[in-house]
Structures are given as C-alpha cells and as structure tokens.
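Protein in question passed on here:
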Amino acid sequence: MTNSPSRQLGELRWPEIDGPLPIVLLPLGSTEQHGPHLPLDTDTRIAVAVAAAVAARLPGALVAPPLGYGASGEHAGFPGTLSLGTAALEMALIELVRSADDTAAGMVLVNGHGGNATALRGAVRLLTAEGRRVLVWAPRAAVASAVGVPGAVGDLHAGRAETSLMLHLAPELVRPDAATRGPSPALPDLVERGVLPLSPSGVLGDPTGASAAEGVALLDALVSDAVSTIESWPAARPSSRHPDTRRDR
C-alpha cells in the first residue's frame, strides 16, 4: 500500500516537491493572552486548523510550518504575550514569501490574529509590486454571524467564536469555569489604549454559550470561505514553475 503524500511542507523531502508548484498555505498566529480561559497559542491553533482543512480540499496544496508570533503590542502587560511588532512581522513575511519562489506557485497567508493586519497589508503591497503571488485570508465576522454566533461584530478577542473553536480543537486546554465577559470596544480605542486598560481580564466579547458543536460548524464555515476565496484566485490554478522574480535575496 502506498501512503498518500503529506500535506505538511515540513514533513516532505525537497525532491518530493516537483512538477507543477503547489499553493502553499502559511498559518499566521500569535502568542498572546486570550483571557483567563484560553491558551496563549489560540490564534495559531485556529490558523493551523483552517489551513490544514483547506489543504485537504484543494488538490496539491501544502501547509507550511506556522509562524506563531505576530504583532501583539496591544496585549502588552499580560504575562505570556510575546510580540514581534508590526515592522519586524512585515519584514519577516516579505522574506518568507520571497524565499518561496522555488517552492510555491502562490502563498496564502492564513491569518488568525487581527493585530497582524497592518503588517500583512504592507507586506502584500510590496510583494505584489515585485510580481509575487500572495493572498491573505482571515476570518470574517459575517461568517460567524451566518453560523449563528451572536454579537459576532463585537466578538473581538477570546469571546464566543474563539472559545467555541478551541472547545472543538483543543478542549483539554480550555477552562470554561474561568471564562468571563469583557467589553467590546471600538477598534480605534483598542488600538490607541491597548487591551489592559479596557479589559483587565483580557477578554473582548462574551464567551457565554460557547460550545464544541458551534466550533465544528464555525470551523467548517471558515474553511469553506477560505476555499472559495482561494479557488477564485488566479494563482490557485495549476501552474508550472513561474518566472524568476527574485529580488533583494
């Protein structure tokens, strides 16, 4: 019996990446506080789960090892939060995508942390100008709303959506008894002041009512949204090795 090729890039040997180059999904998360009830790697775990399920639905797609550090300056003051910052993250993403010229027909950055958005915009702007094929996907409140998550627009951090997803993905790491409701501030206020002055618990939203069953439905909806986005992207079509676009290597 022949084993199916791994979808995990890190498990492959380089000669196994031959023929048409694959789409490579890079899960991007964070290491930051997620309230008193969720683990520090929540964003990364969710991004990895989405990327793995997307790759299972897209023939030939591969999942790169995750980048588990992001721009988490707004979570300063909580023990356990480790942050690269926006400038360093932007440069790291630029160099990672540049380095994929011999590996990927296109890179999909599967983002699990909203604080990474500014770095992602800057990196994609430059990489696109260089002619590289890069796409960003991130969870949208509309997807959570469609599944029935209440108050999805204000469910910013460690609230119901993330708690339901983690009850499905890693229930042994969730402490429902420690979950607490927090405020849902406007994003400009959050960016200006940071989380701690707004929510001493670190929660921005309300995890009440979260469940593993809701996590299953939400993950499936997020994966379907990501697959649809990627399938409409020209770089997702079968491709041979694309022309050399290396710069500043």
Observations:
- The first strand starts at residue 23 and ends at 28.
- The radius of gyration is 18 Å.
- Strands lie at 23-28, 62-63, 106-111, 134-137.
- Confidence is low (pLDDT under 50) at residues 239-247.
